[in-house]
Amino acid sequence: MGVLPLDGVRDRIGVPDVAIPVGRVVELPGRGGSTYVTDTPGPSPDSPTVVLLHALGCTGLLTWFPVIEPLSERFRVVTLDQRWHGRGIRGEEFSLVDCADDVAALVDLLGLDDVIVAGYSMGSIVAQRAWRQHPGLVQGLVLAATTDRFQRAPYEHVFFTGMGAAMLASRGIARSRTAVAAARAAADAADVANEDVHAWALNEFRSTSPWAVGQALAALGRHHSRPWLGRIDVPTAVVVMCKDKVIPTARQYEIARAIPGATIHEVDDGHAGCVLGHERFVPAFLEAVRTVNARRRDFRR
């Protein structure tokens, strides 16, 4: 559901050698905590803004660092760590509804306008919910490696039902040494020199605890957006990962067809292609964002 397989493959993966934006920890008013945010300016003060939402088990920067610099040539680019990921908010439990509300709180805190919300895998689910819960906030959607629901095949139903029960039984771990250690690891991962991108990426990957991933998986198992996808009324692009074994490619095409007017942008890579196949993913993603932005302007006329 979005975990990038970085650990243990440092010497063979093609992690791009790019500058890592410097962010800051910000308190989200009314949301019960703080999160780590990067805010990369666009070419002008009135550049449209793209808020990037990361994949499961990752951080805002770990999913998106290959795309931030080229995207900032035309857009202001914002990332954040979602709940229980990296330096995101630590709450009682992981909730997709809370994640979407966190996005709205950050948009309000930064005083953003004309926002395009883009998500990868788990982030695409949160992006869907951001439109559903805050329709006036979202002016465009880019959904990459996405689906409308996870519990479709019998084996998936068994997996997610069991994951939900396991997470309910272990709620107390939110204050355990495992969670505390993950929070400290996230803080320690902040300022690795840009010349060692591999080491930085591995630190980011390790900053989210296995318990947090389990909680998020349980929440994803409860997601089902098909009943309201047809009501999405903002320009939308779907980036389809054509060799995806985590979220089957056929499901990604299905959700694109279910959203009125959604455009399709194909990437010949698998689920981790946002980083490991960045040379193919970045151009397709940039095209998707530019298409949504152009259609957004037409909508406003």
Instruction: Output the CATH homologous superfamily.
Output: Alpha/Beta hydrolase fold, catalytic domain
Low-confidence runs: 1-13, 157-195
- Approximately what portion of the residues adopt beta-strand conformation? 15-25%
What's the overall geometry? globular
Distance between the termini: 38 Å
Q: Domains counted in the coordinates: how many?
A: 1
Percent of residues in helices: 40-55%
CATH architectural arrangement: 3-Layer(aba) Sandwich
If helices are DSSP runs of H or I spanning 4 or more residues, what is the number of helices? 11
SSE succession: EEEHEHEHEHHHHHEHEHH
Structural class: alpha/beta
Task: Give a brief outline of the structure.
With 301 residues, this protein is α/β, with parallel strands linked by helices. It has helices spanning 60-71, 96-110, 122-133, 154-169, 177-188, 197-206, 210-221, 226-229, 249-258, 273-276, 278-300; strands at residues 24-28, 33-40, 49-53, 76-80, 115-120, 138-144, 236-241, 263-267. It has one domain (24-300): 3-Layer(aba) Sandwich (Rossmann fold), CATH 3.40.50.1820.
Q: Explain this structure to me?
A:
β1 (24-28) and β2 (33-40) form a beta hairpin. The protein has 301 residues and is α/β, with parallel strands linked by helices. The N and C termini lie far apart (38 Å). The longest helix has 23 residues, at 278-300. 43% of the residues lie in helices and 16% in strands. An eight-stranded mixed beta sheet has the order 1-2-4-3-5-6-7-8, sandwiched between helices. It has a single domain, classed as Alpha/Beta hydrolase fold, catalytic domain (Rossmann fold, 3-Layer(aba) Sandwich). Residues 1-13 and 157-195 have low confidence and may be disordered.
